[in-house]
Here is the input.
Amino acid sequence: MWLALSLLVAIPLVWVGAGKLHRFAYWIDKKTDAEIEALATGGWRQDRLEVAPGVVLAGLVRPPASPTARWILFVPGNSTALLAGFRAELDALRGETDVGMALWAYRGFEASGGVPTPEALEQDLLRQWDHMKQLGARPDRIELWGYSLGSVLAVRLAAALADRGETPARLVLAAAGEQIPIMQHGLLGRFRPDDVYDAVVAIPRVRCPTVIVHGTADDALPIEGARRLAKLLGDRATLHELPGKGHTDLWADLRRLAF
Here is the structure.
């Protein structure tokens, strides 16, 4: 009896304690296709992109009016309001400018299938890049914009494209991270090693000009990481430090400094 009672007390404690060993988790909130479709207003349209057999990503695309306009492939942060939240920020960023925009929810997020891992999300971005070319975007007019977790993935995408002999027009990193550990998705993820999203190892292969915008008061991804990324990139990078700004309040500055 005492053993059973001890187990009843110990198991929840171990469960909670194991979770606290991880700095970040995947902030997943499931959505229906109908909820994603409801976001396809104001020039946006719903896009479903198959990235692997049986794995389809839910996304939003807003084509430009001009066939020669630039495009932004936006790589979002880790968020429970991924498509809706970042669509709103992108609308504010764009204003009245004729620029194409596209973003997709990560595997497992919202109405996207699959399970998120660093390798899978990087491969999905390559598929998104190729899909944008099929939509009419010129490769030399596509910019990669990454926010938070997306900053690491955008760096890795730029490096992977360089390996293929392709170069984005520009790389823009907001609230950038060097290495971001995230608890593996799934019931037993808290008992396993973190998924590690690593920008540092990819930096030497990045060839395009890069703009980094980061708040000095960012307590999620401290600015020291952005400074080290800028140093590694050398003359390829321009770093804008925003005094007193945190992790989420830099969007107006992003438009002013990078758009």
Confidence is low (pLDDT under 50) at residues 3-18. Strands lie at 45-52, 55-62, 71-75, 100-104, 142-147, 170-174, 179-182, 195-198, 210-215, 237-242. Helices lie at 2-20, 33-37, 82-94, 118-134, 149-163, 223-233, 251-258.
